[in-house]
Amino acid sequence: MTASRIVFLMYHELELAGRKLCQSELGYVRYILPLETFRSQMAWIKASGWRGLNVGEALRYPAEPGVCITFDDGCETDLIAAAPVLREFGCNATFYLTAGFLGTPGYLNAHQVRELDEQGFQIGCHSMTHPYLSDLTEPELEREVVGAKLQIEAIVGHAIEHFSCPGGRYDRRTLQMARRAGFASVANSQFYANSSRTSPYELGRVALLRDSTLEEFAATCQGRGLWKKQFQQRTRISVQRTLGNRAYDQLRAVLLGRQHK
Ligand SMILES: [Zn+2]
């Protein structure tokens, strides 16, 4: 991997002992890392002499080794669990918030969003209500992309420049809407590293899974083995296209249930 290729990592809620998660279905929980797992990953970044970058920093594609750290959904653990660990290991990150979830149980409230912002982390947008954006009508899409941006900007008092797609789903209209809204970048959930040749509106990101090892994490940061994940994902996307999002989610719930029996 050349120095100018950067892997963007995608985290979600973190699991704290004795604390209930925002959602309980298996398709959600498999993306939830225990706090200690996250901590060991950040420790690896620091021990390796790498930098943990937010999206704005990563898009400048610095030559020194680094990885971009992002969180989706705007869970309260962004502030109470992730932020202290990030600070401890000198890492920055972008927190993409679902505007309509703010202030509901388990999610950040406006005061906490401002606190994250004031600590120097970057705040991004992850839609208003977390729908699959490719399924929406034009007015719905506008509310999810433009409305959400304005709502988060009203909280922090400055421009929000980066967007991530709920469930990784997007289409051409989504990207047009994001550009029109004034977003400088859009991140999806496809397994590829980004470079200065990647469109900032189609940034790949690699989701971390709760049961992955530190060796797998190191390989991911180095961009090793992403082609394999990408191949599996392409197969999944073609099944999604054939079945439609709703039927696919039902099938996935059944298959995940089986795996865990
Ligand atoms: Zn999400």
Shape: globular
Q: Rounded to an integer, what's the Rg over CA atoms?
A: 17 Å
**What's the total count of β strands?**
10
- Spans where pLDDT lies below 50 across 5 or more residues: none
Order of helices and strands: EEHEHEHEHEHEHEHEEHHH
**Global structural class:** alpha/beta
Bound molecules: zinc ion
Determine the strand fraction and express it as a percent band: 5-15%
Largest sheet: 6 strands, parallel
Give the oligomeric state: single chain
Helix content: 40-55%
Average residue pLDDT:
93
Distance between the ends = 39 Å
The number of helical segments is: 10
Model description:
The chain is of the alpha/beta class and 261 residues long. It is built from ten helices and ten strands. It has helices at residues 26-29, 35-47, 55-58, 77-88, 110-118, 138-156, 172-181, 214-221, 226-243, 245-259; strands at 8-11, 14-15, 33-34, 51-53, 66-71, 94-97, 122-125, 162-164, 185-187, 206-207. Strands 1, 4, 5, 6, 7 and 10 form a six-stranded parallel sheet that branches. Helix 2 (35-47) packs parallel to helix 4, helix 6 runs parallel beside helix 7 (172-181) and helix 9 packs across helix 10 (245-259). The model has no long low-confidence stretch (mean pLDDT 93). The structure holds zinc ion. Zinc ion is lined by residues 72-73, 126, 130, 166.
Give a short summary of the structure.
This protein is α/β, with parallel strands linked by helices and 261 residues long. It is built from ten helices and ten strands. The strands form three sheets. Strands 1, 4, 5, 6, 7 and 10 form a six-stranded parallel beta sheet that branches.
